[in-house]
Amino acid sequence: MTLLMELSVFWGMIHVIFLFLMLFRSRYTKKKTMLIGCIGMGLLMVINGAGLVIFGLEALGKAFLFTCSVPSFLLFYVLSADKRFRFLFTFCLADTTCIWIMAATNLLDYYLGGGKYILMFISRLAAFPLLEYCAYRFLRKPYLMLQDAVKKGWGVFAGMTVLYYVLLVVIVNYPTNITNRPEDVFVCVLVLILMFFNYATVFSALYRQLLLYQRQQSERLLQEQTYSLKIQLENQQYIRKMKHDMKGHAVTLSGLLSAGKMAEASKYLKNMESDLEDAVGQFCANPYINAVVGQYVQRLRGLGAEFQADIQIGDEELPYMELCQILSNGLENICDALVKLPQEMREASVRMKYNKDYLIIRMKNRCQKELQVDRGTLPDSSKGKAGHGFGLLTVKEASERLGGDMVCYTEDGNFILDAMIRLRG
To answer: What does the alpha-carbon distance between residue 385 and residue 171 come to, in Å, rounded to a whole number?
Structure first.
């Protein structure tokens, strides 16, 4: 009958790997991860299997932390894309959940199955696949999204899972197996129940964080759409004005040509071309970047702001969607900041240039004296307060997606936003 117990232990070890891989994000390809993971965990299973046969379940249970948990932790830590507390929480979550099932089925078999391991084997045979199904069906997708969305605050949850892991190992295996200590069974059952409710509380809190993140993302998206519609409306108004002006130009040119004044008509056309270039703006050869900067230049001129653009790029291929997102949000914040200042203080500039493997973007504007921002922090995102809006977080996220970063700070009465993106190739 001990064969059924040994097989159920191996069954649990196999499935704890599957559970962890569902919640784990590797830094390598799926094929490479599976190959390294299977080889490493296969060796550990052989070692622990030999220990189970030679020394027995009780001795292996006491040494399991060092013969399996620590080596597997080091193996997957090397493979993991997430480090520190996010990885620690995921690892301990998978391990403690499986230890919980093993402890519960062990007690179930001892008290209801007569300790013959038949009930243990059957219950584990069903429990682990059911756990994986529930994890894949309900937990995997939101959990992976949560790891992307929430960068901080995992330390408390990771510390809790580590303590639960140690507590379960100790209460189940020390000084002997829990089935040999009837006086401790009630405490063990209470710990198992408490662990279930605590994990439910943790995931409820994490899910609320995910909903908050999604709501913030939706608000930023809605804000960007509002900005886009506002710009389109301004463009339509500007186009209508140009059409009205063109009628006057057409009348003037028609009069000059009818009078045979070719030289005057040619001069008038050159002046029209110069005026159009000044109005529309030609800041660089890249049509996408030029369009975004041109749109905001019209708004800045409407505010009476002094604006300088120094964009040292050509028509080479660039990730224009993210770049336009960075520029539009940065320039929108500039407009919001300058409108609060007196006319004579409205100054802003945009500079873009290459620096080795990066494209550097600096947006600078005068700001209110009370606005103080240190490097590495973001000012208040509320539109109702002095400073800059939601767009800064969007700029930072877009920069990070392109392998770069964004910092902002105040200096000598100016708000400075520096963004850099890594160039492809």
So the answer is: 55
Q: H or E segment at 362?
A: strand 358-366
Distance of CA 110 to the CA centre of its chain: 46
Helices (H), 259-305: 262-280, 287-302
Order of strands, edge to edge, in the sheet holding 414-422?
306-311, 347-355, 358-366, 414-422, 405-411
| pLDDT at residue 382, as a whole number | 46
Cβ-Cβ contacts under 8 Å for 87 (sequence gap 6 or more):
76, 77, 80
Query: Which residues does residue 422 pair with via DSSP β-bridges, in sequence order?
Result: 358
Instruction: Reply yes or no on whether the pLDDT at 6 is more than 70.
Output: yes
The token duo for 195 is 């662990």
| Structure-block tokens of residue 248 | 């006057």
Q: Are 107 and 185 in contact (CB under 8 A)?
A: yes
Q: Which of 64, 62, 317 is nearest to 177 (CA)?
A: 62
Interatomic CA distance for residues 142 and 154, integer angstroms? 16
Grouping H, G, I as helix, E, B as strand and the rest as coil, residue 416 is strand
pLDDT above 80: residue 244 = no
Phi first, then psi, for residue 11 (nearest 5°) are -60, -45
Tell me the pTM: 0.57
Do both 176 and 304 map to the same domain?
no
Q: What is the pLDDT of residue 59?
A: 78
Pairwise CA distance, residues 201 & 240, whole Å: 58
Residue 175 preceded by cis peptide, ω within 30? yes
Label residue 318 left, alpha or beta by phi (over 0 means left) and psi (-120 to 50 means alpha): beta
For the ranges 14-23, 124-133, 285-294, 400-409, which has the lowest average pLDDT?
Answer: 285-294
Of 220, 248, 265, which closes a domain?
Answer: 220
CB-neighbour burial class of residue 279 (10 A; exposed 0-12, middle 13-18, buried 19+): middle
Determine the pLDDT at residue 384. Answer: 46
CATH of the domain at 373: 3.30.565.10
Q: What is the mean pLDDT of residues 362-373?
A: 90
Backbone Cα Rg of the chain: 32
- Total count of residues recorded for the chain: 425
- Of 177, 173, 175, the residue nearest 65 (C-alpha): 173
Residue 302 in domain: yes
Residue 279 lies in a domain: no
How far, CA to CA in Å, does 7 sit from each of 4, 56, 104, 118, 356? 5, 13, 17, 11, 58
